[in-house]
Design brief:
- With 213 residues, this protein is α/β, with parallel strands linked by helices.
- The chain is built from eight helices and seven strands.
- The strands form two sheets. Strands 2-3-1-4-7 form a five-stranded parallel beta sheet, sandwiched between helices. Strands 5-6 form a two-stranded antiparallel sheet.
- The structure holds adenosine monophosphate.
- Adenosine monophosphate binds next to helix 2 and helix 3.
Length: 213
């Protein structure tokens, strides 16, 4: 059983790492941002409530997001493990998660400096259907603007503009740093740090050996 939490600033590379890890480890990638974007796209009651909050780069209320996450982790496909991305985003959420899941095994922090993130986000493209992540400069799809995985046309996230990215990084710095300290202090959880400079396939290979040993 491998229950992983991914930590790191928006745009640090969590989604890209998660995409590779989920295939390698055969466990689902649960992204609270993706769950919310689905609600917005489907214009559900929750979607209508959170649309402008997300567009401004602010955090959605803990109640909404925690209820949503609880539903998702209880689904059958998460029984043998999962990769959690985007939650917890503050200390309150970390404490709530402790009540929902008592056996988090690993935390992986993806570290990328803010100036690198700001440059990267302008050229980030995502697949609205399967959430695969690309970069027009460093990681382009095989066919221009088309998802390699499912063939859907790629889009730029509305919150990937420079101003909103700056706000999201600001929010991250304030709220997530205590979460990092919270997990580092827990003996039962192994804390890993991955740097943006490392080769992603090498990183994934190491985790494969570690988790499947
Ligand atoms: P992400 O895809 O993780 O960058 O999330 C996109 C947006 O969704 C964030 O800027 C928040 O508005 C919202 N969001 C995602 N996860 C959470 C969370 N755990 N708590 C509050 N808001 C969240």
């Amino acid at each position: 059983m491998t229950n992983i939490i991914l930590l790191g600033a928006p745009g640090a590379g969590k989604g890209t790492l998660a995409g590779k890890l989920k295939t390698t480890l055969n466990i689902p990638h649960i992204s609270t941002g993706d769950l919310l974007r689905e609600e917005v796209a489907n214009e559900t009651e929750i979607g209508l409530k959170v649309k402008s909050i997300m567009a401004n780069g602010e955090l959605v209320s803990d109640d909404i997001i925690t209820a949503m996450l609880k539903n998702r982790v209880q689904k059958d496909d998460a029984k043998n493990g999962f990769i959690l991305d985007g939650y917890p985003r503050n200390l309150e959420q970390a404490k709530e998660l402790d009540k929902i899941i008592t056996n988090i095994t690993d935390v992986i922090e993806v570290y990328t400096p803010f100036d690198v993130i700001i440059d990267r986000m302008a050229t980030r493209r995502t697949c609205p259907k399967c959430s695969a992540v690309y970069n027009t400069v460093t990681m382009p799809p095989k066919t221009e603007n088309i998802c390699d995985v499912c063939g859907t046309e790629l889009t730029q996230r509305k919150d990937d503009t420079r101003e909103v990215v700056a706000e999201r990084l600001n929010v991250y710095e304030k709220t997530t740093t205590p979460v990092i300290d919270f997990y580092k202090s827990k003996d039962a959880i192994t804390y890993h740090t991955v740097s943006y400079k490392e080769d992603l396939d090498v990183v994934v290979g190491k985790f494969k050996d570690l988790f499947q040993a």
